[in-house]
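Deviation from plan, reported transparently: zinc ion complex.
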Amino acid sequence: MNEPIASASVASEQVTSEQAAGRHAGDRQLIGAIEAGGTKMVLACGYADGTIVERTSIPTQDPAQTVPAMIEWFAGKGVSALGIAAFGPTGVNPSSPTYGRILQTPKLAWRNYDFLGAMSRGLGVPCGYDTDVNGACLGEVMYGAAKGLDSAMYITVGTGIGAGIYAGGQLIHGMLHPEAGHITLPRVPGDQEFECVCPTHSSCFEGLAAGPAVVKRYGVERASDMAEDEDFLELEGTYIAQGILNYLYVASPQRIILGGGVPDHAPKLMARVRAKVLEFNNGYIATPELDDIDSYIVQPACDGNQGVLGAIALGAQALQQA
Ligand code: ZN
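Because the crystal trials were delayed, the predicted structure below was used instead.
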């Protein structure tokens, strides 16, 4: 079943036999995209101009079931390239033996699985590969809230916290990829007793402020249940602003895009975060961007399609480099 698509960037056109044969020239070659998550795989195909032609999703089972199903879906469309934005940690350095492999995931069947290699062999087309949050960052840079900028950060606060950094015209990698959700944050006074939900760290951003931390701290079913609560807005706004200020001082992005289920379902949070970033900066850096904080820290502009759009952009890059 294909999901209904609300994005204005999504055309109603169907894949024609000519497109299926991959005979279109230039940027009209059909590109496949996978936003690979721990619970579902979002599959899409579209064009390098940001048009999504078709989108569907399948549950993430073991690779033995899920990978052949994905190969079959894309093979039927005749895609000329594929971009994969994968859950991490995962190998993103093309010169590393772990490139394209899922690494220390709790999903044992995926651990050390050669995801990129399997898709590449199965489809026989050029493939681009990066993390899910880097994919979302690239989607916003190419088609969304950071279009035209050569540096930006995309931060997601949802079931986990992650951040993608785009700088100097490319996504930032190094020995691995940034794990920005796990930076250490100081506890807000009154929150010292809260047991950080990260299994690895005792006071990290994700363990203090992602959805599961909100659920545990307040004893609610969903983080969105707290959306109007003043204590939540103050505490969550403080942690997110601390995280953003650290990112801002290190990476100096021209724009910060704050997405994910927690801010998406708590509309008042954005204003709180902006105010606290300015408060904690305390005038230390003064830029035109910070003077216009409402245009500096913004919501995503891709209508929830930033991940698959970023994967299309990764596929388009792979096609160009092939
Ligand atoms: Zn952590």
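The domain at 17-135+303-321 is CATH 3.30.420.40 (Nucleotidyltransferase; domain 5). We consider this an acceptable substitute for the interim report.
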